[in-house]
Amino acid sequence: MAPKIFIDGEHGTTGLQIRTRMAGRRDVELLSIPEAERRNAALREDMLNSADIAILCLPDDASKEAVQMVSANNNVRIIDTSTAFRVNPGWAYGFAEMDGAQAGRIKAARFVANPGCYPTGAIGLIRPLRAAGILPDGYPITVNAVSGYTGGGKQMIAQMENADHPDAITAPHFLYGLPLTHKHVPEMTVHGLLDRAPIFSPSVGKFAQGMIVQVPLHLGDLAEGTTMESIHAALAAHYAGQDKDIVTVVPLAESKALSRVNAVELEGKDTMKLFVFGTPGAAQVNLVALLDNLGKGASGAAVQNMDLMLAS
């Protein structure tokens, strides 16, 4: 019998994208609540407890409520896409490629916290350098990023796409998170293996899906002898041998030939590209992650985690 999958919040942006990715699959059975019944608490609780895996596509408080609805006496496994459990040590962090053991942790876990879109790019760049001893304790990391507006959910999509919306956003690009207290900072700090919280400056562009995350570094403040080439080698070694090449470290020669990076290049894909930019022999580098904020940054990652859990 095919495993039963319930997407709690299937009518939201992330849930709809997960359903799209699972359309036509015959190896799982999707449980579904009609949109008109989505506020039926009893039906929702029944669906949660009838599933083999429940994927929560909800705000933080609603996710916490859903977890409480799952009976302690059954074997329902949960993938949560909110920020509620991402630094909870009782939950496996759902970024399988971030180190060699993480896929195994996800396969064995009952509870998996799907990563945020910005942290996926930032952690993907930072953690390998911390693990390799290149990035020292106390280094003042900055993370600068731009996302497609779908990351803001249905409300922001309406604001960006409907000029008649009472709170329409007409700016082609805007900066937010100005108090520097964004909810993704703890996640970047913990899973980036940082001992000092980064300065995170997020922004949104007038494009639906896509993301660029940048981490600039001063080579002289890193481990002695660090070069642009050694940073690239550390990233390449970290992601070598991963399943399905979901994370690609772009060769230095290919990066050097680029004159620009297109934020929407990976739209609709569930992969991520990492770049090392700079001039050989110079004193700085810029590390760049490219991904789809709804792909590897959300729904695509959730399906990848589901597949790992089903393979356990």
UniProtKB/TrEMBL annotation:
Subcellular location: Cytoplasm
Organism, scientific name: Rhizobium chutanense
Gene Ontology annotations for the cellular component aspect, listed alphabetically: cytoplasm
The protein, known as: N-acetyl-gamma-glutamyl-phosphate reductase
Keywords: Amino-acid biosynthesis, Arginine biosynthesis, Cytoplasm, NADP, Oxidoreductase
Uppermost EC category: oxidoreductase
Active site, per annotation: 117
Highest taxon above the source species: Bacteria
Main localization category: cytoplasm
The protein's Enzyme Commission number: 1.2.1.38
Residues covered by the Semialdehyde dehydrogenase NAD-binding domain: 4-106
Alphabetical list of Pfam families matching this protein: Semialdhyde_dh (PF01118), Semialdhyde_dhC_1 (PF22698)
Molecular-function annotations in GO: N-acetyl-gamma-glutamyl-phosphate reductase activity; NAD binding
GO biological process, one term: L-arginine biosynthetic process
Biological function: Catalyzes the NADPH-dependent reduction of N-acetyl-5-glutamyl phosphate to yield N-acetyl-L-glutamate 5-semialdehyde.
